[in-house]
Design brief:
alpha/beta; FAD/NAD(P)-binding domain; 3 domains; about 25% helix; homodimer; five-stranded parallel beta sheet
């Protein structure tokens, strides 16, 4: 049995390792287009923040370990450019030699991940205009900061990669301006809570330009000029962080179905429209635990989990993955920002009858020193009583608190049941009524 | 309608305030034996840790606010000593005047709380031998430390009050020795995890004497001598923290049924065996979410919640409370220790077929600086697949993480379902696979 995997990152290497563990006699072949496998992509902004750290610190396991001890046939510099699903053959051209390669498969996993969206505008291919997705991107950024002695950076986009990079670059002493065409920072969040994040960015000398559309990037001498409709921003570096697209073209070129967000459509077993082909990671879609419908939320945990599930299924264990809740957390300087489930806008979009509250409470008990403000936004469905989503912002106690709401979404709990859960209390860690419970109590009143 | 409440702490004042909010025209009468109402009892160790803070900082709302703005008839210094359920009268003697009082009620709430267990041994009534439950206890302890210039304290018991007080006293520069007759620190926890707590106590110069039975306390000059079977410990102060008992004698004296741990037996509406009488807080029992059976776990959140539910029911809203999971967290110097649900021993006791794992992982992502070790203990039932309990120890990321497991217990989730929940990930806050998920994955393997 030949199990071929396209892509040697989170999903691909998780699948490869697990398949070999289950069935050491299986041929597990990984084809990775770059030279890097198995690294902590999400750790890149934190690594970039520190000039003294090597980007290769983020490598979790070296290629040689996979090849040696684990017995995986791992090929780097092997970009696949076509899949012949009829004859079960993948093929491409070895880099840099230019020699062709072909592999036959019994089972194929497409784990090609995603790539940063790059606007189709003039100047986005100039040197110094960069995106952050692969370890090679991280290397390039660190190198550019060092060699070009970057004093100012412009970040296009204000999603979590942009925000994490803003912090990283400020830590390197680089001035940061962020630009986006939309009028709102974190539009999925109540304005009151987004204002807290905005304030934190301002307090850390990150300038935000909201509602500014970019028309092109130009270069004069060492300087890049980000030309917006009504203003031009000068910088030594431009980071493009306006979202990612799934690498699904290889799949769709082979006649495999794609769906929401152009991601590869998979069932709960991660099987694509071709039963010998699986897809996992940022290139594949998933079911959403609240809507029950397909969604595309590329996140690291899902990629790892899906990689394992594919390995299990390929090895005949028949595993079905549960849906995703879209739980996410990110750090913005000293703030923790977290969400799970649907936003208010998404709740409306999916036909729920959402009711929401936004509360402000304390991160520690009454009279306990060092308390910070915590904001909680909770959404329930008036029709069914179900909890639909939660969001939090605060300086402490946010990152892990969101998980209680995430589990409640998986359990399809009502706001009433959630409000009765027995959550931990001690004065250093929160008020008697956990902020989530206070929010649930208030939401319940509003729903009744 | 006359709603009489015995006890002016968490459950009692929560009920009083909420009843008045629902029905401003109702007569709400609170009879509190002490002079203190509505204070953060759990905050006392942290207040005692700081010589400069007034213990009255812990008062959440002053008696005058309840009396004035809220219109509650609050009587302090009114210890009730009997309940006549037939004629619906409570009576007692006003302190310090000695005058008798009698109140008729339509609905009665017994919220008499608990009291520290005091061993029936010689010397436990000596000055300097103290327990911590009421605000007055806290006042006494702070005063004793100050006036007697305590250099060393012996704490009897190693539960969370004892441990929190050990930290508080060390912060005051007081040497601390802790004694208990049993051989194990935190016997409900795996030995490997308890050893981490033990180490932390040792690192903070808290000496533990496990397996030492106390026979008496003696006083010579200014010194107290805690006499154990094989050793005598000298101290300027002895803190008795060997657990609490429910104050249920008033209820049982009136023919009201008590149950597990001698707590007052209540149904989901918090009604006692007498339909006009409710009980809430540390004096009342509850259903356990895992066993479905009665339990007695006196904790602050439940007291507040039960107080509200009684008010709702008295006001005709018919509210049933969900069960408790026994979720708890406490701080031991720089450690966070948390639990929810059943321990392994309890799981066996209640007839489950428990399987458990204890794992050690990191509090931050691979290569993220500042990571600490996190220990997770997870228990599942082999027969039904259900999650039964979780425990955690670590320097960060424990206190709120436990809540994800608590919600899973409320949802009666299987370990398999829990292992598939979509929990938050970002490098500063944990590994890609949350420690709870890693534990669930390993437990699942062991259960299958």
């Amino acid at each position: 049995m030949k199990f071929v995997i396209i892509g040697g990152d989170a999903a691909g290497m998780s699948a490869a390792s697990r398949a070999k563990r289950h069935m050491p006699e299986m041929d597990v072949i990984v084809l990775e287009k770059s030279d890097d496998v198995s690294y902590s992509a999400c750790g890149m902004p934190y690594n970039i923040a520190d000039a003294d750290r090597d980007i290769d610190d983020l490598v979790v396991r070296k290629a040689d370990v996979f090849r040696g001890k684990q017995g995986i046939d791992l090929f780097t510099g092997y970009p696949v450019d076509s899949i012949d699903t009829k004859n079960r053959i993948v093929s491409g051209t070895i880099r840099p030699s230019g020699e062709p390669f072909r592999f036959f498969y019994d089972r194929l996993l497409i784990a090609t991940g995603g790539r940063p969206k790059i606007p189709d505008l003039p100047g986005f291919n100039l040197p110094g205009v960069m995106a952050l997705k692969s370890l090679q991107d991280g290397r390039r950024i660190k190198n550019h900061i060092k060699t070009s002695n970057v004093g100012k950076a412009v970040i296009l986009g204000m999603g979590y990669v942009g925000l994490e990079m803003a912090e990283a670059l400020r830590k390197r002493g680089i001035a940061v301006e962020m630009v986006k065409p939309g009028p709102d920072l974190l539009p999925w969040m109540p304005r009151e809570m987004a204002a807290v994040v905005k304030q934190e960015l301002g307090d850390n000398q990150v300038d935000l330009h909201l509602g500014r559309k970019i028309t092109r990037i130009e270069k004069t001498g060492e300087d890049l000029h980000v030309v917006c409709q009504d203003r031009t921003l000068k910088a030594g570096m431009v980071l493009v962080a306006v979202g990612i697209d799934p690498n699904s073209e290889l799949a769709s070129g082979a006649g495999i179905k794609t769906g929401v967000g152009n991601a590869i459509a998979v069932d709960r077993k991660l099987q694509t429209s071709d039963e010998a082909v699986y897809a996992a990671g940022d290139c594949a879609d998933a079911y959403h635990v609240v809507t029950g419908q397909k969604t595309w939320i590329p996140l690291a945990l899902r990629a790892n989990r899906a990689g394992w599930a594919v390995a299990d299924n390929v090895c005949g264990k028949s595993v079905e993955l549960d849906s995703v809740a879209g739980t996410a957390v990110f750090q913005v300087f000293n703030l923790e920002v977290a969400r799970t489930g649907l936003s208010l806008k998404e709740s409306n979009h999916y036909g729920f009858e959402p009711v929401s509250v936004t509360i402000k409470t304390r991160s520690r008990a009454h009279a306990h020193p060092g308390a910070e403000t915590i904001w909680v936004h909770l959404i329930g469905d008036r029709r069914t009583g179900r909890l639909l989503g939660a969001q939090m912002v605060g300086r402490e106690g946010v990152a892990h608190r969101i998980n209680a709401a995430a589990v409640a979404l998986h359990a399809k709990m009502s706001v009433a049941s959630f409000s009765q859960t027995d959550l931990a209390y001690a004065p250093p860690f929160g008020p008697v009524w956990d902020p989530l419970l206070t929010a649930a109590n208030q939401l319940l009143k509003k729903m009744s």
